[in-house]
Amino acid sequence: MIQTPYLLFLGDAPDQLAAKVAQGIKDWRPDNAVGQFRMEGCNADLGLKDMDLAKAKAAGARTLVIGVANRGGVISQAWKKVLVQALEEGFDLASGLHNLLRDEPDLLAVAEACGQTLHDVRVPEVDYPIANGKRRTGKRVLAVGTDCSVGKMYTALALDAAMKKRGMASSFRATGQTGILITGDGVPLDAVVADFMAGSIEWLTPDNDPDHWDIIEGQGSLFHVSYSGVTLALIHGGQPDALILSHEPTRAHMRGLPEYDLPTLEALRDTALPLARVANPGCEVVGISINTHHMGAAEAERYLKETEDRMGLPTVDPFRQGADRLAEALASL
Amino acid sequence: MIQTPYLLFLGDAPDQLAAKVAQGIKDWRPDNAVGQFRMEGCNADLGLKDMDLAKAKAAGARTLVIGVANRGGVISQAWKKVLVQALEEGFDLASGLHNLLRDEPDLLAVAEACGQTLHDVRVPEVDYPIANGKRRTGKRVLAVGTDCSVGKMYTALALDAAMKKRGMASSFRATGQTGILITGDGVPLDAVVADFMAGSIEWLTPDNDPDHWDIIEGQGSLFHVSYSGVTLALIHGGQPDALILSHEPTRAHMRGLPEYDLPTLEALRDTALPLARVANPGCEVVGISINTHHMGAAEAERYLKETEDRMGLPTVDPFRQGADRLAEALASL
User: Fold this and answer.
1) In angstroms, rounded to a whole number, what is the distance separating the alpha carbons of residues B139 and B54?
2) Cis before B5 (ω within 30)
3) Each residue of B56-104: pLDDT tens digit?
4) Residues paired with A33 in a beta bridge
5) Is the CB of residue A128 less than 8 Å away from at least one CB of chain B?
6) Which of A195, B94, B199, B331 is the least crowded, having the fewest Cβ atoms under 10 Å away?
7) Residue B57 C-alpha, separation from nearest chain A C-alpha, in angstroms
8) Where are the beta strands (DSSP E) in A225-283?
9) What do you get for the CA distance between the two ends of chain B, in Å?
10) A117 falls in which pLDDT band (50, 70, 90)?
């Protein structure tokens, strides 16, 4: 559990895209972001107040979050100066970088000396149990995709926002590094040892109030041969009551697999639903989220309508339209 | 890769069942077993020559394999004396125990001093790649089960023996600790990090001669919610040309999951085959292996015939009948 709120470290981000983790935090959990810390040469700007460490501390920030992809996979000396000082000023550090904070001897030593915590959210910090498959109270929804990176996390976060707006009880449950940094908690599922994958998701989505919804962040795809096992563990550990099908219509092949075509939404439904019903016989597919980022407005509208008619399910682009109709579908379940 | 042949360490095994790893090595790779080492109080006997370390060394043994489940999860002082001496005499040690050899400071220190290797086969020793899904040359067969522990490893080993007897080119590819100790090599799949599961199986079953068969040891079950993700990674990483369905007919519920019924063989076929065809569109179900251990001879025969008629596939109990008919089915593929 990462202590909130955060000061978002943008470092020397070469452009706005390099700061997309910070952008996600600001967009989805603005209360978690008291300000941004930018170094000389930083070309990203979240529109938050620029703060130095002392100001951020005074504003209540407890963790400095590295919200930027670094250049060359190395934590530079220029960054180090800020990170060390942050530890000395009483901040924890949190990062989703491949190169771990804990592997930097200076950061490790200073953190220990100052009694501060280094959170490398790519690395599991919990001994997860083996899944026991027992039915849990409360409700769960999971987005499953025709491919990786088709907008499952965005769908889940938009759904969480739409449900809260309707007054429904919901929790976004992060299963990847960006989601974990956004919410401060979660399971880095792709780094969990095979035997404990499903158990980690049971742990993440425990018994809850009967009308509470866990919105579980999806990972991979049943049709992506590199990561399909992770997806099935998520389906069986999450035992969802509802599935949302996610798709990106303009993709020429499965991400990173030029020899593999994307499945149809029908194939995804017919594969995912019977597997989900092994763990939860009452599971239903309730809606479809389409990532129309690479389509014009008219083309997107046409595609959404055609898909909705064909599949007989509420079909939205949560980025263009929000996820109200998906929340509505869950409310009536 | 564990150096063969082995001296099989039975320690103070309370009964024959406790020595089942050693029994598996002796049954399936008799050439790997030059002798057995029994301590006072050992009640197991593999029918191999009893040897002390010097005799085994002279007979060519290179690794002392702990072929016995230890009591209480601790490597006892009585064992230690033998293990330390073995290292000093130039043996490597290999073990599938939960408590690792490398976590014993004395064994670690002596192994380092003597330049010998400690193999804990529960722990991956390779940095596996992420799966790339590219089609590989050679052929592959995988047993998938209605449940865990229904005889998939036994089926694979029996099939390997039957294929070799027919003069077919085949390799048993171990994916669990017992299989790894039997053959000296393999992937401890349940201990691999999620993102690398499918890649580890691609690594295990690389390009091969067009008529060579990799017989991949199955794990878990698509219907076992604790481990289904491991099974799907095996199917997509292995990209099998042929599946064998494995079943144990007398089981009242899924192993360790009292609330879960076993699926039918039809459900297993209809779930596993479409998923396998994502990675290998030519995949076929070629046969069925039934574990009739808990049935009388007549009942078993009836069950096998009824299943064969119903499913239209060669159906055998490899323990009672061998796997010749499964090998035949593969030969005609």
Assistant:
1) 43
2) yes
3) 999 999 999 999 987 777 888 889 999 999 999 999 999 999 899 999 9
4) A6
5) no
6) B331
7) 37
8) 242-247
9) 32
10) very high
Nearest to A259 among B130, B134, B222 (CB): B134
Using CA atoms, how far apart are residues A48 and A30, in angstroms rounded to an integer?
10
**pLDDT at residue B74, as a whole number:** 80
* Complex confidence, ipTM: 0.94
Read off the pLDDT band of A53 (50, 70, 90): very high
Q: Helix or strand or coil: residue A187? A: coil
Which of the residue ranges A64-73, B14-23, B198-207, B224-233 would you say has the lowest mean pLDDT?
A: A64-73
CB contact under 8 A, B278 and A223: yes
B-chain CB neighbours of A261 within 8 Å are none
Residues 264 to 323 of A: which have CB under 8 A from any B CB? 271, 274-275, 278-279
Do A67 and A33 touch, CB atoms closer than 8 A? Answer: no
Q: Which residues in chain A are closer than 8 Å to B228, comparing Cβ atoms? A: 198, 232-233, 236, 275, 278
- pLDDT at residue B286, rounded to an integer: 98
Q: Which residue has the tokens 């006997």?
A: B45
Question: Cβ–Cβ of B226/A275 closer than 8 Å?
Answer: no
pLDDT, residue B98, reads 87
Total residue count of chain B as it appears in this document: 333
Q: Which of A10, A271, A239, A9 has its CA nearest to residue A145?
A: A271
Count of helix runs (H) and strand runs (E) in chain B:
12, 11
Mean pLDDT for chain A overall: 96
Q: Looking at the complex, does the CB of residue B199 fall below 8 Å from at least one CB of chain A?
A: yes
- Amino acid identity of residue B253, one-letter, is H
pLDDT recorded at residue A15: 92
Return the residue matching tokens 């009836």. Answer: B302
Contacts of residue A231, Cβ cutoff 8 Å, sequence gap at least 6: A144, A218, A219, A220, A221, A222, A224, B229, B232
Model confidence band, residue A160 (pLDDT cutoffs 50, 70, 90): very high
H/E run at residue A119? strand A118-120
The single-letter code of the amino acid at B2 is I
